[in-house]
Specification:
Mean pLDDT: 83
Radius of gyration: 35 Å
Strand content: 5-15%
Number of helices: 20
Largest sheet: 6 strands, mixed
Structural class: alpha/beta
Bound molecules: 5-Methyluridine triphosphate, magnesium ion
Low-confidence stretches: 1-14, 591-610
Length: about 600
């Protein structure tokens, strides 16, 4: 595997990276009407809130103190208007934020999923599935939260404070200035804590992503974990990570707990200032009792956002980090893409020529070097060789899942990089070493190869592939579900379905990576038969482990360490008395499973069952 740390390093960027924020805003821009709507709603709510408090002052000063009810009716009506407006505002902003959040999540996920389809296999080789999954799930959610609730909280904080400050200034500007002088101290404290808390949360998130990755690997690889009895060792590693996580979260919560009492202490200071200075002013006759009471209320109103600030900024920080990772995925250029001017040749019929091809998955680890081979149109070529020889790599290249690092692959004389990916991949049918099915019915899985096919054509393909027998025996026949990834079927059955899928798509090139795991002899015979149907019409590459398949091929390529060891027909190779001869005769002599074992005395290889 490539260096597994690259995706961790770029986990967290700067606290408030302007570029990322701009891109996040870019997501919101198309929905500016929604945003304007809820900002307006929030602003109105903030003003109403302060106005509400102001009515309280009026009750004290105009009704209770002078013992006069004449203003009461007007005050009550104002109250009603405020409450009604308030309800309307709350409804509007909750509705709009919810809607906006869903829209943005939907758009982001669509974009990410779409982009993933364009990325090459090499990308998936080096990127853990768990990492990609979190981008599509938790990160999109967090970004949506930021642009809705984050934006909302911030707007609310600002408008709330402005409204409260304005009303205080209106009531008594001298006392207002005293109260407002304390605010910067409060804000400074809040910001300092924000910094600290964010740092801890960041750390715990980083550890969390490591934990998610480990979990993912353990769950998807549960069979291997058990088979290799790695449980204990994995548990130990896991504990180290969870311990780190615990410590980081612990510190974050400790800081968070300290924050509130501190804010309350400073507010108590502000409160005593109001009482002190307010009392003085009241004695001078410059301030009413109602005003002092209102000031206390406004102070409380102004404190809400500040107490909230640390939380808002922590989530802002997280969301920015999420956005950075998500954008990094969106920005990943597919390393295989159609060249400018790429075209669809209409068919892939024609000779396939490997011309001096070099290939490697990772730098410095060449798999093929100077590999040359011409496969004629309609020919069936069997590739044999020990594990790791490069058999799968050759067919990966034919499918253009990867491209040669040097040299060229030509189809009908044309370098295949001049064709579109779609043109190539839509005309290749394949049955892979580990056949891949998708959750859905058998019918859907076969039709996957050619979406326009009728049900009858699907059944026919099933028959030709030899899948018909076992499918008919299933309770729901072709309508049976295969489970996630086809878990409900055996490997042999999955291969038959894949085969039917390939037959249905009528490919120009057919590729079969025969499974080393032995299927029962009946299934094997069925697979053979199904392959005949394809071999007749397509140029066929078959990575073979069974002599029955190998003998049926037009030519046999014996591959070792990415080099052509022998190449020729069955007869020719037998006559050469080389590797193939030894392989063949040994097979009969021993009927053994592990023929490649003794091949050059070194490798342990695939089973040769027959
Ligand atoms: C050839 C390496 C592998 C081996 C060499 C598919 C794949 C292979 N490799 C990678 O690094 N990344 C990959 O995605 O390339 O491997 P192969 O072509 O898979 O060999 P094979 O098909 O002949 O082997 P097998 O076991 O299927 O019979 O060094 O590590
Ligand atoms: Mg292979």
């Amino acid at each position: 595997m490539p260096d597994p740390t690259w995706f961790e390093e770029e986990e967290f960027g700067d606290v408030l990276d302007g570029r990322t924020l701009r891109r996040i805003l870019g997501l919101v821009r198309p929905h500016w009407r929604h945003v304007a709507g809820f900002i307006l709603a929030i602003t109105i709510i903030s003003i109403l809130e302060s106005w509400f408090t102001f009515q309280g002052k009026r009750i004290v000063d105009e009704v209770i103190v002078p013992q006069d009810t004449s203003a009461l009716r007007e005050i009550l009506i104002t109250y009603l208007i405020i409450v009604f407006g308030f309800a309307l505002g709350v409804f509007t902003f909750i509705y709009l934020t919810g809607l906006l959040g869903q829209r943005i999540q939907y758009e982001l996920r669509q974009r990410l999923f779409h982009h993933l389809q364009t990325l090459s296999l090499a990308y998936f080789d080096r990127t853990p599935v768990g990492w990609i999954m979190s981008r599509l799930t938790s990160d999109t959610e967090r970004i949506a939260e930021l642009v809705t609730w984050g934006l909302l909280d911030t707007t609310w904080a600002v408008t709330n404070m402005l409204a409260a400050a304005s009303f205080m200034m209106i009531i008594n500007w001298r006392l207002a200035l005293v109260v407002l002088a304390v605010m910067p101290v409060l804000i400074a404290v809040a910001l300092w804590f924000r910094q600290k808390i964010v740092l801890q949360f960041r750390l715990s998130r980083r550890i969390n992503s490591i934990i998610t990755g480990a979990l993912n690997e353990n769950i998807t690889g549960v069979r291997v974990v058990k088979a290799l009895t790695r449980e204990r060792a994995n548990l130990r590693e896991f504990r180290v990570h969870t311990d780190d996580m615990y410590r980081a979260s612990y510190r974050a919560h400790w800081l968070a707990a300290l924050f509130l009492p501190l804010v309350q202490l400073i507010s108590a200071l502000a409160l005593s200032l109001i009482v002190l200075r307010g009392g003085q002013l009241a004695l001078e006759g410059a301030l009413t009792i109602g005003s002092i009471q209102a000031f206390i209320s406004y102070l409380i109103i102004m404190l809400w956002p500040i107490q909230d600030l640390a939380r808002v900024f922590a989530s802002l920080q997280q969301a920015v980090a999420s956005a950075e990772r998500t954008f990094s995925l969106i920005d990943t250029q597919p390393d295989l893409a159609d060249r400018p001017g790429a075209y669809d040749p209409g068919t892939l019929k024609g000779d396939i020529e490997f011309d001096d091809v070099d290939f490697q998955y990772e730098p410095e680890k060449p798999v093929l070097q100077g590999f040359s081979l011409t496969v004629r149109q309609g020919e069936t070529i069997a590739i044999v060789g020990p594990t790791g020889a490069g058999k799968t790599s050759i067919v990966n290249l034919v499918c253009r899942f990867y491209e040669p690092g040097g040299g060229a692959i030509r189809i009908n004389g044309v370098d295949y990089t001049r064709f579109t990916m779609q043109a190539i991949q839509s005309r290749i049918g394949m049955v892979l070493q580990t056949p891949q099915l998708f959750s859905g019915t058998i019918l859907e899985n076969i039709r996957y190869g050619s979406l326009g096919a009728s049900d009858d054509e699907v059944y026919e393909a099933g028959r030709l592939a030899g899948a018909d027998d076992f499918v008919q025996r299933l309770e729901k026949g072709y309508e049976s579900g295969v489970g996630e990834g086809g878990v409900l079927l055996s490997t042999g059955q999955k291969q038959l379905i894949s085969l039917a899928r390939a037959i249905l798509s009528q490919p120009d090139i057919f590729i079969m990576d025969e499974a080393t795991s032995s299927v029962d002899t009946l299934t094997e015979a069925l697979i053979q038969q199904g392959m005949e149907a394809l071999m007749k019409r397509s140029t066929t590459f078959v990575i073979a482990h069974r002599l029955s398949t190998i003998r049926r091929a037009d030519r046999i390529l014996v591959l070792q360490d990415g080099r052509i060891e022998e190449l020729g027909t069955h007869r020719e190779l037998l006559r050469r008395r080389g590797h193939y001869y030894r392989l063949y005769t040994r097979q009969f002599r021993e009927q053994a499973d592990r023929v490649w074992d003794s091949w050059n005395g070194a490798t342990t290889g695939p089973a040769l069952a027959e």
